[in-house]
Design a protein that fits this description.
The complex is a heteropentamer.
Chain B lengths: L4 H6 L3 E5 L3 H4 L1 H12 L3 E5 L12 E3 L6 H14 L5 H7 E2 L1 H8 L4 H8 L3 H13 L3 E5 L1 H4 L4 H14 L10 E3 L6 H6 L6 E2 L3 E2 L3 H11 L11 H10 L4 E5 L3 H4 L3 H9 L3 E6 L11 E4 L8 E4 L4 E5 L12 H11 L10 H11 L8 H7 L1 E3 L23 E2 L18 E6 L15 H4 L6 E4 L1 H6 L6 E6 L4 E8 L7 E5 L27 E10 L9
Parallel strand pairs in B: 1-2, 1-5, 2-3, 4-15, 5-6, 9-10, 10-11, 16-20, 17-19
Antiparallel strand pairs in B: 7-8, 12-13, 13-14, 16-21, 18-19, 18-21
Chain C lengths: L2 E7 L8 E7 L2 E7 L12 H4 L15 E4 L2 E4 L2 H19 L4 E4 L6 H15 L4 E2 L5
Parallel strand pairs in C: 6-7
Antiparallel strand pairs in C: 1-2, 2-3, 4-5
Chain E lengths: L10 E6 L3 H10 L8 E6 L7 H9 L4 E6 L10 H18 L7 E5 L5 H18 L3 H5 L1
Parallel strand pairs in E: 1-2, 1-3, 3-4
Helix pairs in contact in E: 1-4
């Protein structure tokens, strides 16, 4: 599969000033901007990094360049939401999509383990929904509270979940706003600190699971975000990352985007 | 650390954490412990403060600061009296067990309870938990070492590990968590008055000869001065010059009034740093060094893990990487052997002269990412954990250690015990973290943690500040009232020069290690006027 | 247009987490955790994520300083180094190497600590070298 | 109308409509489309020779002003007092404009060469400080009340048609002559047609009673006919109105209190042949009566203009439940709207008669002028403000503002304080707190929350 | 915990200035009895109430939170309450997911003229919170 992608990238280097992908370097793997003449053999497909954040930073730094990006399903969904919010210029980006493997889809509980038009890889069957979601959703209230309080009490306030999230591109973050969260407390105040992000994820989260993978306290964050994604789909019929034209409903009036129940 | 960090997650069946606020001091090691807990490992936390790591512990044992040896001896007392010790390991690989056993037998749980405040049955349960779940790792940090009885504490920990055969196997060991990114490396590289690189003693003529030949000249075989002695030295004139690189004694040293007094009298003080720290402001010459992203090199982590540091940007203005400054200065003094083109070449010289770093090179690091020393040869894979099969000194030595009171205990005048320590959001004297906007905004200024009972005793009201006095000085601070600390104990982080905890601490030091007793001193507190009522939130 | 990620090790605590420092045209723009590192494994603490926070701070020392009439004044490297060299060699001549003390740093690299130790012992000839490991 | 035409500081733009408006209070830019008149206003002196010289010797096309009762030529003057006194050419019916083949008699006759068939539609932009929307009303379409037989029976007229008949400058020079040429002996005037009625409009149109009385008086005077007025409540609220009503009572106009059920031509009783029969319950005597008349006049009510939706979108106006434009406050600010700088005058805001409309328009004009004279405007202090460094330009706030006060400037959001009403919805929408709600900042509200809870 | 136990709930009520706040005023003027537990925080429009504010109210010790504003279509600013109508259900569910009883938060439209409805809504909500018992300690410690 990687050979096909390297070829696609090489070809895209004709029309693009550079292609954002992963590169093996200094004994590890990191995002990189491949440009003409770079050694494509060094390109890798994993471990994953939110490449769309790199695209966004490059688009802002160089208003004229045209980029390609090697993207999985979740990267493309992240791109859709970021383009909608003017963080990436769709006219200056070409997506070189590839499908995840079946195991990756299972591991990520991913519903759409492939971009819309993958250049390589056959889209596997979608992964099962995260079993934890059903489990914690069915817990009685007290158990749910004690579970989440125990989980959040492990939080060391590293802001990793926000830093790694492609959708968290704000200049100033409400989680650092003294009005909402008293600074410098460990663990950060329950429930303010974590619910701010959960609410923002309602109309933005594309389920790439990076937040959960980067949490040093191993808190099952995406259980909350999956529930929020379910709610916004049920209440407002909106699926983040699905359609670049669809405006996120929370900003619109009831006429423009009615409540479904 | 005798063992490596990943083993905590993969192999340890019990982790005893004593004197380490792991979540704040070593967050990603705490992360491994969180994972280990999920795998079923048992966690015991012994600390005067109910720190965050304690919240996921199976057993949390608060105790009186300074009573570490008593608690450790108490644990060993229970293990021996219930026959849980590893008799085979003791027989085969240790010596002087009898003397230690004789001392330990005096520390019955009841006596330990009286000394340290740890309930007897809790002590018994903890001892059984540690002994019965092998391999068991002991993790500790400055909470153990920064005492006048620091060396005794560490010896007791070693005793406990050897008693239960928890050495030389994966997931076990005696694991000091070194506080700084390269404190292990600095020690390895001979940054100590008593050893050459690789812990080759200065007092050994062979070592002296080795370096004499290698360098064309070296010092005599008399152990040099420690930090504390150097500071006192410039104070009383025995030392005429002091060259400080990347250190800030004006905030880090104990008894800061004394330190300021001495440093101000230094005849010639050179400070090489990246900021004009409190110490640099007193210097005669200040040399602008480079930050870690402005130079190549290696750091050695707490588990003897050597990893590369790579240059990302150029130093600002005319600042220069520290290794270049030292080389230029040496050449200026006419010394040979300092014309290195890059740190890579320096490492090659280190590998030649330091047995434990023998097999370490930039090429290998580029490929493997890291290497654990000792790594004697170029094909050696490195040593994740030490003392496999045999102790480097031959037989593991037990030490008979008696409990000694800390240098200064609370009394009527100064009824509270002050302990100092680290915060998650800051690092050491704060010269870097307080200049990082995202860290500064979390904890912009110093505070003191006090128990509600102590707060009530001085009729403290929300929004008020307090003044903390010790026999050495006083500072004013914000207050955080929390149940997560033992009544009678107060905690102050030492990152804040304007309210330096070390103004209060005393300079009494451990006789052997000469490490000051930051963790225990006696203070008193009084409330002062209300600072503009900050919304403290529902603390 | 230059985009780079350089793998380095954290400057703060002893864990030894490693991360990629991202630069665009030589400007530091972010930090990515190194997912292959055994300790951090794609995770960092708040200090790790903000490890480059202080690098561009205006307080950074940019030139050597020399105390003249009680005030620290910016000077050239040449003047500063020669001042230090003369002073140290003079003190060594008059009162012997042991009247000089050196403090190396747990925040500098192994190579720098080695050179400092070599400078103390080989160039000056004193064992008065320590660092804050014991503080 | 004449005075407005001649006033030096009033620029009258006839045959024109506003197609777009942008900007905000004090800085509006309106785009105006002027349709071609085919006669140059700057040259024509209003001698109207061209009308006579038109190839159509006799008027053949229905005259809109006279509600189609009279006829006109393709080149015509809309109505006698038209301002400016300049005729216009109807492109649908003028041979030259329709087919391009005509002797162009009008053009030759005009010595000043004012006729110009090449005139095109003109679009221009005008900078204005304030806007007064005075788009008026529309009378209810009588077809909405089918049981009154308008359109089915020729002798059923709307009040406006009756108005033209009694007018001296009307098609019949004031003679009340029916469509079939007869002069009516009995006339029935029905009030509240399409008003105070669930099926059409619920509101009272306020003016119909009085103009019905006026028509009753004039028709009686011009034709001597016997007049019946069918009303629910006689509403004579103005100065001298009640006295006029009493005068009519004395003149013998028959007033029957009851809502006419239907108008038919089914003659049942003798003497009803050839007449229109109004069945009505006379609530005064509690009986249903059949009143045969020669002519029926329907006093149709007032409703909002058909294009009110388009116009409200154009000027950012909201509309009240009855479809008229919504005033800022029914009692205290009847001429202002929620969009500062835009005012309402006359029936665009709701039904009212001429004196009230004049007073209302005067109020609107004075408010507008007051605003213009001040030069600067004091705005509510509780507006929102964007902290530019914090804004990342995601645009979540843009669609939130009902006053389109937020726009994107160089990639970041910016609030136009003149338009912002301080509702704070954008402040709550912004995920990064980049928009501060002055006087209702997060810090202030949190302080209140903490205050009430301690 | 029923009434006897002396638990007197604290309920933060965000009230929109044009409708609910005026309605509450009218209730007072008309001498109607509404519970003292209602702690009013006036905002210009219910759209000003962000989810963060509701969460912060719980964090600061509220046992219940009411978000009140004009009926849909009555909003003085045309569509401010539309956004409230969408945000609050999402937040309510989220509170439930982390174990805070969603009943502790409610969205209620009360116009200026509905003083009786204001009293009815506040009394019903206070009674419900009284039965649910205090939330304060569970959230902070």
């Amino acid at each position: 599969m990687i050979a096909a992608i390297r070829e696609a990238v090489a070809e895209r280097l004709g029309s693009c000033d550079g292609v954002v992908a992963l590169r093996r370097r200094n004994g590890g793997v990191a995002p990189h901007l491949f440009q003409k003449g770079d050694e494509l053999a060094e390109m890798e497909l994993s471990p994953r990094y939110p490449l769309m954040t790199v695209v966004s930073r490059l688009h802002k730094a160089f208003p004229a360049i045209r980029l390609g990006v090697v993207a999985r399903g979740c990267d493309e969904r992240a791109y859709v939401e970021m383009a909608k919010r003017n963080q990436i210029d769709p006219t200056r980006l070409e997506i070189i999509g590839f499908a995840c493997t079946a195991e990756e889809a299972q591991a990520c509980y991913c519903r759409e383990p492939s971009p819309k038009h993958p250049v390589a890889g056959t889209p596997p069957a979608p992964g099962p929904p995260n079993p934890l979601v059903a489990k914690y959703d069915s817990l009685p209230l007290e158990e749910r509270r004690s579970f989440w309080k125990k989980q959040f009490s492990k939080c060391i306030k590293c802001y990793g979940c926000r830093n790694i999230c492609p959708e968290c591109f704000c200049e100033a973050c409400a989680m650092e706003d003294m009005a909402w969260v008293e600074p410098g407390l460990l663990a950060p105040p329950f429930p303010t600190f974590h619910l701010i992000r959960a609410m923002h994820m309602a109309s933005r989260c594309v389920a790439c699971r990076e937040c959960e993978h980067t949490c040093p306290a191993y808190i099952p964050l995406t259980v909350l975000y999956d529930l929020m994604r379910r709610d916004i789909a049920d209440l407002l019929g909106y699926i983040p990352g699905a359609d670049i034209e669809a405006q996120q409903p929370l900003s619109l009036s009831l006429e423009q985007a009615p409540l479904k129940k | 650390m005798t063992n490596s960090i990943p083993e905590l997650e993969t192999d340890s069946r019990c982790i005893l954490i004593m004197g380490s606020n792991t979540s704040e001091g070593h967050p990603l090691i705490a992360s491994r412990i969180v994972k280990a807990k999920e795998r079923g490992a048992r966690v015991i936390v012994i600390d005067p403060r109910d720190i965050q790591i304690a919240r996921l512990a199976d057993m949390y044992i608060p105790f009186r600061p300074g009573a570490d040896v008593a608690v450790l001896n108490g644990l060993m007392n229970v293990i021996i009296s219930e026959g849980l010790e590893d008799k085979e390991f003791i027989a085969a690989r240790t010596e002087a067990y009898a003397e230690m056993k004789a001392v330990v037998e005096k520390y019955t749980p009841e006596r330990v309870q009286e000394i340290s405040g740890v309930p007897a049955d809790m002590l018994r349960e903890a001892a059984r938990l540690y002994a019965r779940n092998k391999p068991a790792a002991i993790v500790y940090a400055m909470g153990i070492t920064q005492h006048t009885t620091g060396v005794d504490n560490v010896k007791s920990i070693a005793n406990l590990a050897m008693l239960t055969g928890n050495l030389g196997i994966a997931g076990a060991g005696v694991n000091p968590l070194r506080g700084q990114n390269n404190v292990q490396g600095a020690c390895d590289m001979g940054g100590l008055p008593n050893v050459y690189p690789g812990y080759q003693a200065v007092t050994s003529p062979d070592a002296q000869k080795k370096f004499q030949d290698a360098w064309g000249g070296t010092a005599d075989t008399v152990v040099g001065l420690t930090v504390m002695e150097m500071v006192n030295g410039v104070g009383d004139g025995t030392l005429r010059a002091l060259y400080v690189m990347g250190e800030n004694p004006m905030v880090a040293d104990p008894d800061l009034h004394h330190a300021r007094h001495c440093l101000e009298k230094a005849e010639f003080l050179v400070v090489q740093d990246i900021f004009l720290t409190e110490t640099a402001q007193l210097a005669h010459v200040v040399l602008p060094g480079g930050a870690f992203v402005e130079k190549d090199g290696t750091f050695t982590g707490t588990d003897r893990r050597v990893q590369r540091v790579r240059k990302v940007v150029n130093p600002p203005g005319n600042a220069m990487a520290d290794w270049e400054i030292t080389c230029r200065l040496a050449q200026r003094l006419g010394a040979g052997g300092f014309d290195f083109a890059s740190p890579k070449e320096v490492m090659e010289e280190i590998a030649r002269l330091t047995p434990s770093y023998g097999g370490i090179s930039y090429e290998r690091l580029e490929e493997l990412g890291f290497l654990h020393w000792p790594c004697p040869a170029a094909d050696h894979p490195g040593t994740p954990y030490l003392h496999k099969g045999k102790f480097s000194r031959g037989q593991g030595q037990f030490h008979a250690v008696e409990f000694k009171e800390p240098a200064e205990s609370p009394d009527q005048d100064y009824p509270l015990t002050l302990t100092t320590g680290r915060l998650m959001f800051h690092f050491h004297t704060g010269s870097m973290t307080r200049r990082s906007e995202k860290l500064h905004q979390e904890v912009p200024e110093a505070y003191v943690e006090i128990h509600p009972d102590d707060a009530a005793r001085i009729s403290f009201k929300r929004g008020q500040r307090v003044r903390v006095h010790s026999r050495r000085g006083q500072i004013e601070l914000d207050v955080r009232v929390t149940k997560r600390i033992k009544p009678g104990v107060v905690f102050i982080p030492f990152h804040f020069a304007e309210a330096a905890a070390n103004v209060l601490t005393h300079a009494a030091i451990d006789p052997t290690a000469k490490i000051p007793e930051y963790k225990v001193c006696a203070v008193k507190m009084e409330t002062i006027g209300v600072k503009e009522a900050k919304s403290q939130g529902p603390s | 247009m230059e985009y780079q990620n350089t793998l380095t090790t954290c400057i703060y605590c002893g864990c030894g987490c490693s991360m990629y420092v991202e630069t665009i045209d030589g400007r530091i723009t972010g930090v990515w955790p190194d997912k292959t590192n055994q300790i951090s494994g794609g995770r960092l603490c708040i200090k790790g994520w903000n490890v480059t926070g202080f690098v561009g701070h205006p307080d950074r020392l940019k030139n050597p300083l020399l105390r003249k009439e009680g005030k620290l004044v910016e000077v050239t490297w040449d003047e500063a180094l020669s001042q230090v060299a003369e002073k140290l060699s003079g003190i060594k001549r008059e009162s012997g190497a042991d009247s000089i003390g050196l403090m190396t740093s747990a925040k500098c690299t192994n190579e720098e600590n080695y050179l400092m130790n070599k400078f103390a012992r080989a160039v000056l000839g004193t064992n008065n070298i320590d660092h804050c490991a014991r503080l | 109308m004449m005075d407005a035409g001649r006033h030096p500081r009033i620029k009258l733009m006839t045959c024109s409509e506003v197609v777009a408006v942008s900007g905000y209070m004090g800085n509006y830019r309106a785009t105006i489309r002027t349709k071609p008149r085919y006669i140059r206003e700057d040259l024509c002196v209003g001698c109207l020779q061209c009308i006579d010289a038109c190839v159509f010797k006799k008027p053949r096309f229905p005259d809109e002003f006279n509600m189609g009762l009279g006829l006109r030529k393709p080149v015509y003057l809309p109505f006698p007092q038209a301002t400016p006194q300049v005729p216009l050419i109807d492109p649908e019916n003028c041979l030259q404009l329709k087919t391009g083949k005509c002797k162009q008699g009008c053009a030759e006759k005009c010595e000043r060469k004012a006729v110009d068939f090449e005139q095109k539609e003109k679009i221009q932009e005008v900078q204005v400080g304030t806007i007064i929307v005075a788009t008026g009303f529309k009378t209810v379409d009588p077809h909405k009340v089918p049981y009154y037989g308008y359109g089915k029976y020729p002798n059923v007229y709307t009040a406006l048609e009756a108005e033209r008949l009694v007018s001296a400058s009307g098609p019949t020079e004031g003679e009340v002559i029916l469509r079939d040429g007869r002069k009516p002996e009995t006339v029935g005037i029905i009030h509240c047609v399409g008003s105070r009625d669930e099926k059409t409009n619920r509101w009272c149109s306020r003016v119909c009673c009085m103009y019905s009385l006026k028509l009753a008086h004039l028709i009686r005077e011009h034709s001597g006919a016997k007049i019946y007025n069918f009303y629910i409540d006689m509403r004579t609220p103005g100065k001298g109105y009640e006295e006029f009503y009493n005068k009519l009572l004395e003149e013998g106009v028959q007033f029957i209190r009851g809502r006419v059920a239907e108008v038919t031509d089914w003659a049942v009783k003798p003497g009803e042949e050839g007449k229109l029969i109004l069945r009505v319950e006379d609530t005064m005597i509690g009986q249903v009566r059949r009143i045969p008349v020669d002519m029926v006049v329907l006093s149709t009510g007032l409703e909002s203009q058909p294009d009110a939706a388009k116009v409200s979108a154009l000027f950012g106006l909201s509309r009240s439940a009855d479809g008229f434009f919504a005033e800022a406050h029914p009692k205290l600010r009847p001429v202002e709207t929620n969009t500062d700088g835009v005012f309402l005058a006359g029936c665009a805001q709701g039904p009212r008669d001429v004196p009230d409309a004049v007073a209302h328009a005067g109020a609107a004009a004075s408010m507008a002028i007051a605003l213009l004279n001040k030069g600067e405007v004091t705005i509510a202090p509780t507006t929102a403000k964007v902290v530019r460094e914090k804004c990342v330009g995601c645009g979540d706030c843009l669609p939130v503002c009902p006053y389109t006060a937020i726009s994107r400037v160089e990639g970041k959001a910016e609030v136009n304080a003149a338009l912002c009403k301080g509702c704070g919805t954008c402040v709550a929408t912004c995920p990064s707190g980049a928009i501060e709600g002055l006087h209702f900042t997060d810090e202030q509200l949190v302080a209140q929350i903490e205050g009430v809870l301690t | 915990m029923s009434v006897e136990s002396g638990f007197d709930p604290k309920i933060v009520a965000f009230m929109c200035n044009w409708c609910t706040y005026a309605g509450a005023d009218n209730a007072g003027v008309a001498r109607m009895e509404s519970p003292h537990n209602i702690l009013a925080v006036r905002v210009m429009c219910s759209g000003r109430v962000s989810p963060e504010m509701v969460i912060r109210a719980f964090r600061s010790g509220a046992d219940g939170v009411l978000v009140m504003g004009c009926h849909i279509g009555d909003c003085h600013y045309a569509a401010g309450n539309h956004r409230t109508a969408k945000r609050m259900p999402l937040l309510r569910n989220l509170l439930g997911y982390v174990g805070i009883n969603p009943e502790r938060m409610e969205l209620a439209w009360v116009s200026a003229g509905e003083a009786p409805r204001f009293v009815e809504v506040t009394q019903a909500f206070t009674k419900k919170i009284r039965n649910l018992g205090p939330l304060a300690q569970e959230v902070t410690e």
